[in-house]
Specification:
11 helices; disordered N terminus; five-stranded mixed beta sheet; LytR/CpsA/Psr_CW_biosynth; alpha/beta; about 525 residues; transmembrane; Aminopeptidase; LytR_CpsA_psr; LytR/CpsA/Psr_C; 2 domains
Length: about 525
């Protein structure tokens, strides 16, 4: 029998001391002892890599969950949903149109800027811009809508309670979302422009303050020292770095710039965004994961987006598409407006300039290239042309044909461009005059001038359905409508001249309203 105090074999002096101190018999600490067949350095490297991988996964999961929980979402539309057969845009590769909204809600952190009575329902859109990213990521257009612009709002349904609000006419565009939510603002812009918006992003006052802090401020410029007690903007003459309250004040000021109207504020907002774009580009922020996480955290805490954009990967996809764009191809434009006939304190679209701009956007033209033209829309056949099987009409002398251009386009100088085509093609006796504006271009002709009318229509690509006999016309009359406001090819969209206020490569100093110069 073994004695009760007998020691197991191998636990004599040296072995027992090593065991008590957690060492192997050779004196190596047990936790440093490599498995048989594996070098110690390999085990250390493997352990470090495993620890790094686990930490990386945990870090990514933490930020993904944090950012995802920050996001607030709302329906994209307050009207009829898109046709189920219509394919949605691919956020990674398709052209994208995103409506950017600034809410004037005054609850929570926004209570310092007024009472809740100042903002009813879902609030008003203090800022409304349409961000248009080309499919090849080489161009971005940012089109601003003045908040005082009078528009027609379609019928909208609040998706939270299914309450439907009737269509309205002559309503300020910033009121579109007050009753039925952001989707109604999206539907209103779609109706106004003929576009199909893919996403929206809406931020509140606090978002501007926190974002400007996160990037270390934005450089802005004013022509004179300025003080606006309403927005609390106060800056010295020249360049200033603004963040927090002063960044918000610069964007909100309504009276301090230009003539004190909304158009002056839009130019200030565009200058701010231009400077912001240059800073993000120069500092490589969009390619810096650490900075991106910080900015994304700030933005998502103060952001409402549509369901299609309500995920961290979707938001990062948009950021990734913007990081390599040439700043000279980021164009800031404003919808062409004038004082409204019904109220000089409100604005209305200027036609045909507004329709020309919307047509250029629908055609996906480069707004930084004035005069760029798309191919004519092939919705109807142009005037018929003689063929080998069609009898050819007798020739006539173009130089003596009575052709007149009635300029009903709404653009006083439009007839000059139209006339140049006629005279350049032999109709040297053509004349022009101003006429009442009409919506559609038509070629009218009197008895015996059908062949001349067909040739005139062909010069401009005017469809045969818009060539009509009119016995009261002596010869041929080309009545130019607002649908033919630019170019010489009917149905082709073209970029109006001077449509771009500035690009992101331009550093523009805001002209201070003399009434708000800080003495």
């Amino acid at each position: 029998m073994r004695r009760r105090d007998a020691r197991p074999e191998g636990t004599g002096t040296a072995g027992s001391v090593a065991a008590r101190h957690g060492e192997a018999a050779d004196g190596t600490p047990r936790h440093m002892k490599a498995p048989k067949g594996l070098p110690l350095w390999l085990k250390i490297v493997t352990g470090v890599l495993s620890l790094t991988l686990v930490a990386g996964v945990a870090f990514a999961a933490f930020w993904f969950i944090r950012l995802q929980n920050n996001i607030t979402k709302a329906p994209l539309s307050a009207g009829e949903t898109r046709d189920s057969g219509e394919a949605l845009a691919n956020d990674k590769s398709d052209r994208l149109q995103i409506l950017i909204l600034g809410s004037d809600t005054r609850d929570g952190k926004n209570a310092d800027y007024g009472s809740t009575e100042d903002s009813t329902g879902y609030g008003h859109s203090d800022v409304m811009m349409l961000l248009d990213i080309s499919a090849d990521n080489k161009r971005v257009s940012v089109m601003s809508f003045p908040r005082d612009l009078l528009v027609d709002v379609p019928q909208c349904t609040d998706r939270t309670n299914n309450q439907t609000f009737p269509a309205r006419s002559g309503v300020m565009i910033n009121e579109a979302m007050a009753e039925a939510g952001i989707g109604c603002a999206v539907d209103t812009v779609n109706k106004l422009t003929g576009l199909e918006i893919d996403h929206f992003m809406m931020a509140d006052f606090n978002a501007v303050k926190e974002l400007s802090k996160a990037i270390g401020g934005v450089n802005v410029c004013v022509s004179d020292p300025v003080f606006d007690p309403d927005s609390r903007l106060r800056l010295p003459k020249g360049d200033s770095m603004v963040e927090g309250e002063q960044a918000l004040a610069f964007l909100r000021t309504r009276h301090a710039f230009g003539d004190g109207g909304d158009l002056g504020r839009i130019k200030g907002q565009q200058a701010f965004l231009s400077s912001l774009t240059r800073k993000l580009k120069d500092e490589g922020t969009l390619g810096n994961p650490q900075r991106l996480l910080q900015i994304a955290d700030v933005v998502t805490q103060n952001l409402t987006v549509d369901e299609g954009l309500a995920s961290v990967p979707s938001l990062l996809t948009i950021g990734g598409r913007l990081k390599d764009i040439d700043v000279s191809k980021v164009a800031f434009v404003a919808v062409p407006t004038q004082a409204a006939a019904v109220d000089p304190n409100r604005l209305e679209l200027i036609e045909p300039q507004a329709s020309q701009l919307f047509a250029a956007l629908r055609a996906d033209l480069d707004l930084t290239n004035p005069g760029a033209t798309s191919s004519p829309a092939a919705t109807e056949s142009p005037a018929p042309q003689p063929t080998a099987t069609t009898p050819v009409a007798p020739a006539y002398n173009k130089a003596i044909q009575p052709v007149a251009v009635a300029n009903g386009s709404g653009v006083a100088t439009r007839a000059q461009e139209i006339m140049a085509v006629l005279t350049g093609n032999g109709f040297t006796q053509a004349v022009s005059y101003l006429a009442n504006p009409v919506d559609q271009t038509v070629v009218y002709y009197g008895t015996g001038f059908a062949d001349v009318a067909a040739d005139v229509a062909t010069l401009y690509g005017i469809p045969a359905a818009q060539v009509q006999e009119a016995p009261g016309v002596a010869g041929v009359q080309l009545y130019v409508g607002t649908d033919f406001g630019t170019g010489t090819a009917y149905g082709a969209a073209s970029v109006p001249s001077d449509v771009v206020n500035q690009t992101a490569s331009d550093a523009v100093c805001q002209q201070v309203n003399p009434l708000y110069i800080d003495q």
